[in-house]
Amino acid sequence: MSTPPFLTLPPGARALRLVTARGEFAALRAEPVGAARGSALLVPGFTGSKEDFIALLEPLAAAGYRVTAVDQRGQYETGGPHDDPAAYTVAALGADVRALTATLAAEDGTGPLHLLGHSFGGQVVREAVLAEAAETAAAGPGAARLPWVSLTLMATGPGAIDPAEAKRTRLLIDVLPTMSLEEIWQVIQQMEEGSGDRARRPSPEVAAFLHRRWLANVPQALITAGGHLVAAPDRVAELAATVAAGLPALVLSGVRDYAWPVPEQTAMAERLGARRVVVEDAGHSPNAEQPAATAEALLAHWA
């Protein structure tokens, strides 16, 4: 999971709930400083939340962007049904992203909208883009263009996660029906204590948040998303056609990544014809680990 470096919202940012045609979603919003240049929708990954992007809010807003980070359905403060696996497929979550996009587009002063997905969220936004592109193509030559002016895939890959990470994810899927989230959390903490890696330990405030966020997950959402991650199809060729048709893409990662090997992400960027940025001294969450460099890369892409 991503670990935000802090939890205090910057000046001009606030928590809110976005009302869409597919329900309400918890979000963080930072308003642009000075003249607005556009807006961005940021979608978190597996076991993550809107707070994963908290360190990006200030630099992106300072550059003139209205930034909205959300909890996906089943995550932290958005919630969702406990007994409906269909609510958490990538197709359903992609439909949520499209509904969120429609809500943002209807706001005053939104401007051009940039779309970003982190980790599992990258495959969710890919699904949203492909569904929107298919619907636009079916509508014929006179149809409206895609509602996004750029796409960023952050720390995500073309298909299933790395086999070692898939093994851990399958273990989680197997125990979720029989163990409580609190019981699983305690096992995770014992494993981390045994690792001896003190560099990974967050502040007490952030640690309490991570515990609270974990317990707020909908178990069925974790099971369904985890099942996708261990067997995700490669849809890069389909997405490449959309990128070639006029949706500029950026593939951004750290120099190391436990979920998808960095060379695999580079190869995906080449297949997409996408811009490629590797953030130094960052792992699977450059948004939280190196937010200044990550914001710089995003602003260059958006410009």
From TrEMBL:
SUPFAM superfamilies attached to this UniProt entry: alpha/beta-Hydrolases (SSF53474)
Every AB hydrolase-1 domain range: 41-297
Pfam families: Abhydrolase_6 (PF12697)
Domain of life: Bacteria
GO molecular function terms listed in the Swiss-Prot or TrEMBL record: hydrolase activity
Record keywords, A-Z: Hydrolase
Entry's transmembrane regions: none
InterPro entries, sorted: AB_hydrolase_1 (IPR000073), AB_hydrolase_fold (IPR029058), Carboxylesterase_BioH (IPR050228)
Name this polypeptide is given: Alpha/beta fold hydrolase
Originating organism: Kitasatospora misakiensis
